[in-house]
């Protein structure tokens, strides 16, 4: 960290709950040994007002700790507080008192601090990747990709704000108008468990860059890297209170945070049912900014031309990656594959053998995030068995009790013969499960793709340029990837249609979320 002190900054005090020792685990072996030797005796804490602290009602807290398990082994890793409403309010007040000063800092000052955050994350890339992989269940390789994106989130927005300009316009020669933007206030930033650091920083970086302050809450299932992030903010010189990170569940901590009238906006990523709950909780606060990025049950359309020999490998590879990356725990995953009838049999056969060879549990496929999530996926697969779907790969995994669970492992699963109205085909399973269905015409493909309450993403595999646009422009999806998947440029609008959300984030769209705009009219003469 560029300091000459003989004692590393992370090795100071707090050994009582051994939290700082987490920073010494910069290899997977050290982290694994650490977890074994501490046997779950690690207590994560909130980061409020620039300091790590336990929520103030700590006696009530102690009975309300949340256990966090390692998905690959089922072992207890740590506990975290379930922050209660009065302590949530402490964090909000901390963000509110930091707002007047932070919102007036220059863009250059904010940019320099956020740049420093990204550099510090880069320095600790491997440590963050290790803890993310342990805490979430994803492979270390996938975790590294996600830490890199977290680094980019800060570097992107640290420079984005430097280049913003406001243009003035003359209206009918009578008035000169211009838009004046200012930070919208204090935000609740709530993120899910599938890409913990990646998605939390996708919110924190623009929020701070545009001059807002925040109370962020990671998922109670995966709080580890959010916890570590507090130290990075301290070291980067983010002023106390600008970013507060509180730990806890959704119904107690999350609900108190979003519902507070002291919060000016909410940026949320997670399940659609939670998005609906947040809308309800904030319904009477009309001016509150809401950006909701919710679930998906995304279609992948495979046209016959995409199975021609020159592109066949790419088609199979993209469809497989879209289905199974991160164990299918990405809201953008293509979990409903539709294949043109003339190539259907070939596709199913080749897709299955490709997935069998490339997506191997414990190597390229991690464990799913929690026992609760394992159970959800298991129930859908049991339903598929009952409904006599064909399993080309995978099977319904056994029921597990937490005590005996040696990890939450679900094999990549490929299903055909799933009825159109089956919950397996309709619901967001959010695991390594894909269904494949044939179609005959382009019109039918579009109709099947759009036959969903969701509208987040779609993947179109074809070599026909006219079809790329014709079909692509009819798909009810906020994001359409053609012959590729998850290619991201951080300025493009990101978000979904229908029950997949409201609002867009990324570049200037994030600016819309985190700022308020007023139009000034000056007489022209
Ligand atoms: N990115 C996505 O699209 C995600 C989709 N999901 C879907 O949602 C399903 C349920 O997963 P959950 O773990 O329940 O995700 P969730 O949507 O409940 O969790 C996301 C975040 O919201 C918080 N939260 C929950 N209830 C809240 C409330 N009333 N007010 C404020 N914050 C609240 C949670 O603590 C967490 O930080 C998954 O099986 C999956 O299908 C889950 C996570 C991410
Ligand atoms: O921003 C991205 O590149 C990916 C985002 C993924 C989600 O929002 C998700 O899986 O929830």
Automatic annotation (TrEMBL):
Family, per entry: Belongs to the aldehyde dehydrogenase family.
GO molecular function term, any single one: oxidoreductase activity, acting on the aldehyde or oxo group of donors, NAD or NADP as acceptor
Keyword Oxidoreductase included in the entry's annotation: yes
Protein name: Aldehyde dehydrogenase
Organism: Triangularia verruculosa
Active site: 293
CDD domains reported for this sequence: ALDH_F8_HMSADH
Keywords: NAD, Oxidoreductase
Superkingdom field: Eukaryota
Domain annotation Aldehyde dehydrogenase: ranges: 61-519
């Amino acid at each position: 960290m560029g300091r000459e002190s003989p004692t590393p900054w992370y090795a100071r005090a707090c050994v009582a709950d051994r939290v700082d020792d987490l920073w010494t685990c910069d290899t997977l072996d050290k982290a694994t040994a650490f977890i074994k030797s501490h046997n779950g005796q690690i207590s994560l804490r909130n980061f409020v007002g620039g300091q790590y602290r336990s929520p103030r009602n700590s006696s009530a807290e102690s009975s309300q700790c949340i256990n966090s398990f390692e998905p690959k082994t089922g072992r207890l890793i740590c506990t975290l507080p379930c922050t209660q409403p009065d302590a949530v309010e402490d964090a909000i007040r901390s963000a509110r008192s930091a707002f007047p000063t932070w919102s007036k800092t220059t863009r250059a000052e904010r940019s320099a601090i956020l740049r420093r955050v990204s550099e510090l994350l880069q320095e600790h890339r491997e440590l963050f990747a290790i803890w993310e992989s342990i805490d979430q269940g994803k492979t270390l390789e996938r975790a590294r990709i996600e830490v890199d994106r977290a680094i980019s989130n800060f570097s992107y927005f640290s420079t984005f704000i430097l280049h913003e300009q406001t243009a003035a316009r003359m209206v009918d020669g009578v008035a000169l108008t211009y838009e004046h933007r200012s930070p919208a206030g204090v935000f609740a930033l709530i993120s899910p468990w599938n890409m913990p650091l990646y998605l939390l920083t996708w919110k924190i970086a623009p929020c701070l860059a545009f001059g807002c302050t925040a109370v962020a809450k990671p998922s109670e299932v995966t709080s580890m890297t959010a916890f570590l992030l507090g130290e990075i903010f301290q070291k980067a010189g983010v002023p106390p209170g600008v970013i507060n990170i509180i730990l806890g569940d959704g119904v107690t901590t999350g609900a108190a945070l979003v519902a507070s009238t002291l919060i000016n906006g909410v940026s949320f990523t997670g399940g659609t049912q939670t998005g609906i709950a947040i809308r309800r909780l904030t319904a009477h606060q009309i001016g509150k900014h809401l950006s909701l990025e919710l679930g998906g049950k995304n279609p992948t359309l495979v046209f016959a031309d995409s199975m021609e020999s020159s592109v066949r490998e790419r088609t199979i590879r993209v469809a497989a990656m879209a289905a199974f990356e991160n164990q299918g725990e990405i809201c953008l995953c293509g979990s409903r594959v539709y294949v043109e009838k003339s190539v259907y049999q070939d596709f199913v056969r080749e897709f299955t053998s490709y997935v069998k060879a490339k997506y191997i549990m414990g190597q390229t496929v991690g464990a799913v995030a929690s026992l609760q999530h394992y159970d959800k996926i298991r129930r859908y697969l049991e339903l598929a068995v009952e409904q006599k779907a064909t399993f080309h790969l995978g099977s319904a995994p056994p029921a597990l009790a937490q005590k005996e669970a040696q990890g939450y492992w679900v094999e990549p699963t490929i299903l055909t013969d799933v009825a159109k109205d089956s919950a397996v085909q309709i619901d967001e399973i959010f695991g390594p499960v894909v269904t494949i269905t044939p179609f005959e015409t382009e019109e039918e493909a579009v109709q099947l793709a759009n036959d969903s309450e969701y509208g987040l993403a779609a993947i179109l595999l074809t070599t026909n340029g006219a079809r790329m646009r014709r079909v692509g422009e009819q798909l009810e999806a906020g994001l359409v990837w053609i012959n590729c998947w998850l290619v991201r440029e951080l300025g493009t609008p990101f978000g979904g249609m229908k029950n997949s959300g409201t609002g867009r984030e990324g570049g200037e769209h994030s600016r819309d979320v985190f700022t308020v705009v007023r139009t000034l009219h000056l007489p022209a003469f």
